[in-house]
Structures are given as structure tokens and as C-alpha cells.
Amino acid sequence: MRFTVPSGFLLVVLLSAFISIAQSLSGTDDFIDHTVKKGETISLLCIQYYGYYSQSLGKALTRDNPSLKNIDIISIGQKILFKKPIENVSSPEQSNAADSTTTGMIPENDTVFIKQIDLSQGVVTYLEGTSFIKRSPNNRSVRLVVNTIVNPGDRIETGSDGRVEILINRESVVRMKESSILEFDSLRNIAEKKGKTRFNFSLGSVWTKVKKFKDSISRFELELPTVIAGVHGTVYQTSVNKDRSSEVKVFEGEVAVKRFQPPLQVHSGNLKSGEIAGPREVAGPREVSLEKWTRIVKSMQIIHIDENGIPDSTSEIKEVPRDSWTLWNEERDRKIAEIFSEL
Question: Distance between CA 133 and CA 145 in Å, rounded?
């Protein structure tokens, strides 16, 4: 026996299927379907899309991605939905007061998706191996994980197999080599365009890339045991040895290296407006040197400073090393450049 299906019934079925597909597609209109690439992390992608990273933003992503069980562990090829950033709104209060024809009324849970590029913060956007972070006030050392927000006063130490990348204010990137120690001293206030970002670097090697601005004001300083390296729009590597001797190697731009004496005492009133500082240990008794000097280290130049803070003459770098550390940094710099054309 043959059965014939009424053409009207087929039309209804096809129409229902079409509506179902359309509704399904419309449900993803508010999202960016991102496929994870090599070297990407949740914090790095959040900064790319929203200008910042926070734990609340991470929780919102797990809400929208039920398969995302641990935001610290993502894999190449994984699909992640990112809610489209809400543009042209500087605060949740403004967004709720905005014209519904432009930004609309934003649900409370979605205010984390407002794009903000003027927040001052440092974030661990990538790491390899084992590293540790020590935080005030308990000063307890715990294992460092990716997507950690770092604050002034935090001290990071990489293990013998550890490498860490810290993105600061979408303006600078600091990467720590194995067996290195770095303390976050102060954070520049980018909203008010005041202060400097400073790190106290006491051992190992770090690679730094700093955004180039139109003016010549240094917004980033690296404090070594006997010198300060003030940078502006440059790529350079700094190393500190166990005997407190150090070197600054510049690959692009220039770095002003100057002799200094750490302050005998730390007073909160000594901070310049706009700087966010962490706690610092008071330096012990020492011989005070009256010698002060400044050296400008230019592109493809290197300078060595001995344990007493006495510099050699700058010398030329014949070629950029091709070791695994340099190649890793160049690869990470390219990844950052893909996301932030201004860096």
C-alpha cells in the first residue's frame, strides 16, 4: 500500500525546520565564535575583546560555555563563545542610562562585557613550567597559574623550568626566564595618564616590550640592584647575576640606564600622583656612592654594569641570538602584535 504525503504537510515541516534553524542562528548573533590558536589563553583573549580581564569575566565565560570546565586550561582548536563587547560605554551606570536604540538596557550579568581599555592592571597571560607568587600581607608563596591578576607588592619567582608573561595596561609586556625573581613595585594609572609602571628585578633574565608613544616620556622602569632602566617604545633584555652585576641588551628603540641608590626609608608621601605602589622592605646600612651617571643604550647595543654599579662602555650587538629564549620571545611578540597592533 502506498501512502502519499500531502504537499501542505511537507510545506509545514520545511517551514518549521527553517524557523528552528533561524532561531538557532539568531541565538548566536550576540556571540563571537572563537577557535583557540597556539599561545592563546582566556585572559589574553578577554583583553583582546574587552580590553581587560577579571575573575567575574571568567565566570561569565563559563556560564556561556558549559563545556569550559577550567578557564586556566584551554586547547588549540577548542571553540569558545565570547559575548560581543558592548562598545562606546565607559561604565555600567552610563550603559543603563543610555538610549535603548544604541546600547540598550544591559542585564546586570552582562555588564562585565562592557569594553574598557583604560583599566590599570597586570595579568599573567601565558606561562610554561612551574613558577610561584608571593603576596602581601601573609607573604605566603603559592604556585602561579595563568590568568592571575598581579598587583603592586607581588613577587614572582620562576622555577628552573618556568617562564612567565605579564601584560600590563595593554602598554607593556614583561617575560621572565627560568630562575628569575621579579617584584611588582608600582602600576601606572592609564585613566589619569599619571605615574610609571615599575618592577624591581633582582635575579635572572627578563624580556620587555613597551608600546611606543608620540611623546618621549618614559612610562616603564625596571629597577636592577644598582641601576634603573627607563624605557620608551622598545624591545630589550635585561639580566642580573647572583653577584648583583647586570647587563642591558637593546634590540629595538633605546633605554636610559642610570646609576641610583635605593632609598634608605620608604615613605608613602614620596610617591608621585597616579602611581599605585606595593610594600617595600627598608634597605639596610650601606656605603653611599656619590657617583651618578646615565647611559643611553640604543638599538642593537649592550651595556654591562658590575656589582658596584660601574658601567662598561656600550658595545654593538652583531646579531640577535637564536637561542630558545629569544625565539620564544619573538614568537610571543608576534602573538601580542596580532592582538594589539599598538604594541
Answer: 9
